[in-house]
Amino acid sequence: MFFDAFGTDSFLLLTALLLFSGVLVAKFSSRWGIPALILFIMVGMAFGSEGLGIVYFSDAGTAQVIGVFALVIILFEGGLHTKWGTVRSVAVPSLSLATFGVLITSLIVGLAAYLLFELSWLESFLFGAIVGSTDAAAVFAALKERNIKAKMGATLEAESGTNDPMAVFLTLSLIELITAEQASFWMLIPTFFIQMGLGIIIGLALGRLASASINRIKLDSSALYPIFSVAFALATYSITAFSGGSGFLGVYVAALVIGNSELTYRYSIFQFNEGFAWMAQILMFVILGLYVFPSELFTASIMVNGILLSIVLILIARPIAVFLSMIKMNYSTKEKLFISWAGLRGAVPIVLATFPIVEGLQNSQALFNLVFFVVLTSALVQGSTISLVAKKMNLVGPKKDIPHHSIELISMGNAKAEMIQYQTNDESAVVGKKLHEVSFPNRANISAIIRNNEVITPYGETEIKAGDFLYILVEDKYKEQLKKTLEQRVQKSEQLMKEKDASS
């Protein structure tokens, strides 16, 4: 084949073609209303042996390694962008969904698999465990630019970021029960608490270490800080896993700590990780698309059984799990129904489906194909209708202000200065004031204002308006003072509004 004939040269060309294809389909996915992961997988299938015949790929072990690596990067990027103040308000329901919700979903889907197929109880529940968790990559991508209410988005993102460890634990535990004669259910209970506990503890510790290291270690180039952060992400996963904890949970917790800390070159770190996560997502889904063989996937048996299991998963198991996991929590019936519908499946179930193949379990390839078809169905049906369902249920929030602009601050060496971005809103005390009327801390100056995606050069008479992005140049030692000033002004404005409302 082409790849075999030209070796290294063809590999580099193939990588370029795959990345080009991934970028193009990502651009058109939102326009077509099709989740990007579907198109990425289709690109992989197109390049595979039963498509254009460019690449023959059938190594489950390699697919598993690439999948785990990509998931670490995606989880880390998602955690960096998650605001702790938002997650804190939905922590209990999210954790309930991530644990009890996954368990209930796995049991119901496992029961359906046992009734539909000639599988043992353990094999049936193994299938349920593999498809039991929602997928962080799919959920983060689906919600990133959609104006879903903040409460719904935070719940779904926190759930998808923390439920992978439960699915991994159940999957590996059931494989052990199938393959090991001495294993028992009772041994799994302490193992679960050890894995989750170590994941949280090590994630918190390494997250704080990473934040302190990024701020205190002075590197020669600002471009090294994003690489430094990725190194911490990979190290967190490995150290947690080697210690017997959940590596995925450790990475997400560490990212939460890092993302909610004051960081040197914060925006460079965030932008690099966002781009790296996109590349990891493209690579992972394309590889998974290469691994699957359409002639085995789209058979009558797989399609019929896959549709039946998808119906059970989407319309029965997931809603039951959501309603049982969120009993007596402050969510309306409509909100629970939306959370049920938005529980997308994606890369995690497909990657987990490679574990039985690597272990050589009976019926593992058929299990993989079935999981793959269920994921495709979930992503296509649920992923493409999230906005429509949210609109029908009146769960649409204000349009997200996502700035498509950036101001890069090149490393200033010994100057130790940084550009801070601050977005104003209707409650900001600085709104309506001219720049010369605002008393910023010493050594802090507004260098630019972005309004409606246009750059405004600030001067004394420039009036600040709601929605403006202020870019403030400040020395490192005054950064905390600037932050406190901005927060105090917002709090003061809110207090004045409350007093005005009370008096009227």
TrEMBL record:
Taxonomic lineage of the native organism: Bacteria, Bacillati, Bacillota, Bacilli, Bacillales
A Pfam short name: Na_H_Exchanger
Protein name listed in UniProt: Potassium/proton antiporter
GO molecular function: antiporter activity; monoatomic cation transmembrane transporter activity
Keyword line: Antiport, Cell membrane, Ion transport, Membrane, Transmembrane, Transmembrane helix, Transport
InterPro entries: Cation/H_exchanger_TM, Na+/solute_symporter_sf, RCK_C, RCK_C_sf
Listed PANTHER family: K(+)_H(+) ANTIPORTER NHAP2, NA(+)/H(+) ANTIPORTER 1
Highest taxon above the source species: Bacteria
NCBIfam families assigned: PRK05326.1-2, PRK05326.1-3
PROSITE patterns documented for this protein: RCK_C (PS51202)
Gene Ontology cellular component annotations, sorted alphabetically: plasma membrane
Localisation: Cell membrane
Membrane-spanning intervals of the chain: 6-25, 37-57, 63-80, 92-115, 121-143, 186-210, 222-239, 275-294, 300-325, 337-358, 370-390
Topological relation to the membrane, as annotated: Multi-pass membrane protein
Domain RCK C-terminal, first and last residues per copy: 407-488
Oxidoreductase in keyword set: no
GO BP of this protein: potassium ion transport; proton transmembrane transport
Keyword Transport included in the entry's annotation: yes
